[in-house]
User: What shape does this take?
Amino acid sequence: MTEPVTRSGLARRLLLGGLVALAALFLFLGYLRMARVYPTNSDGASVALQAWEMLHGNVLLRGWTVADVSFYTTDMVQLAGLEWLLGLSAEAVHVGAALTYTLLVLAAALVARGRARGPEAVLRMGVAVVLLLAPAPGFGYLTLLSGPDHTGTALPVLAAWWLVERAVARRFVPVVVALLLAWAQVGDALIAVIGALPLAVVAGWRLLRAAPAGTRWRRRLLGVDGRLLLAAVVSVPLAAGFVGAVRAAGGMVGTPAALELSPLSDLWSRAAATARGVLVVYGGYLPERHGTLSVALGVVHLVALPLVVVALGVALFRLMRHRSTAGDDRVTPLLAVGIAANLAAYLLSTLPADLHGGREIVAVLPLGAALTGRVVGPWLRANRPGRLALAILVPVACLSFAAQAVTANGAAGSAVGSLEASWLSPRGYTYGLGTYWTANSVTLASHGRVRVVPVAGMDSYRAHHYESRDDWYDPARHDARFLLLDTTAPVDMAKITAQFGPPVITQRFGPRRLLLIYDHNILTDLPSS
Assistant: This one.
């Protein structure tokens, strides 16, 4: 029976809640400055345009071909809400990224705390916050704070594991967990790897090892672990069924994921790329840091990373030896298996190619922070040197966050293509074609006043049915008068002239953008299919 809350207890809770809210506000403002360092590119702009259509009634995104990861039920919903407040703008993307990361820090600290109270709860949360608080500039900002990406994918997983820990004995919890995992999988299939799979593995393993000898299987399956196993398994077809229903109703069409297994001969190079990706995500990749202070902070992150490795090993070892029956920790092995599954899937694929690939394993950062807090926290409580080390690292992390927030410089709320948009719109050029990295970003930069439709091709340009809507290419409905090219790739003017004719105006925007203006509707020059 819970004790009644006294007035003094209520006052303490209100004070604590107010302090947490104030801290969250400061975190959000700092992360917003960091998010603004890099302008929004076409990937983020595409999700922003889809969210805008969702906000204005096209909830199923009819006519759209989206990416292999749509973020339809995750980041896109958040962006729609922000665009209701801020309008169609790159600022909404930056605000969304900062808000997501702020919530991620709070959620990881909450899951790290678990059921601990008093000093141990503070130590657990302190470890998690230290690991997450100050993302590294450079690829760290690009990976964690550049807009809709896998960064927010860990949020529904952390929410599900918090629910499992706090109310697992209640019969409705497996149902809610199944629905939460399924809903998140619609937006990002990575949830199946870091959420549904770990839940199935841990619940299944407990069914095999944790039940008392002689317990009948029917009783086991009707218990908590049996219901959680069912929740994990059911979430996958639920998500697939929802996506299929949306498509059957004329809604969005997803692009198949370009995933392949890596040849065994490439395993060592993929392992090295995976290690670099982990270092980028955790802020310990020193070649990306410049200046004495930045390198020193990178070393701090690098020194903290072995704690995560140790915590992962300890959690997996405990899971393998697990034989207890009830009242023990389910969340720690769920976090550990999720990290291991994400890293293994990444390692065995062809994704580990460069530092940008770190975004595919970004979930190992918040999951690892929560896991490390849960495993290391109890040890810190019993070891004074460890507590002293944490007492030093917390202010260092806070100073690092403050320094990065103050020194972060970027065009507030900007998108790639802002210069091109400001040239096109006043001159009345409001509809045209562009290569992928110039298209939707310019549309966003112009707040929708200039529509740049993505095209692709080698020998000739064609409609690019990726992050685009089918009716954008209809010459009976639209009059496209320009072609905007990304010149980081070779541009063959002879082929362009053969397809569209000679331009009447040629305009360059720095070394990377070439604008060709035409005196006719160049949509008629695209292939019909």
About this structure: DSSP finds 19 helices and nine strands in the chain. The first helix runs from residue 7 to 35. Strands lie at 64-66, 253-254, 431-435, 451-456, 462-463, 468-469, 482-486, 505-509, 513-517.
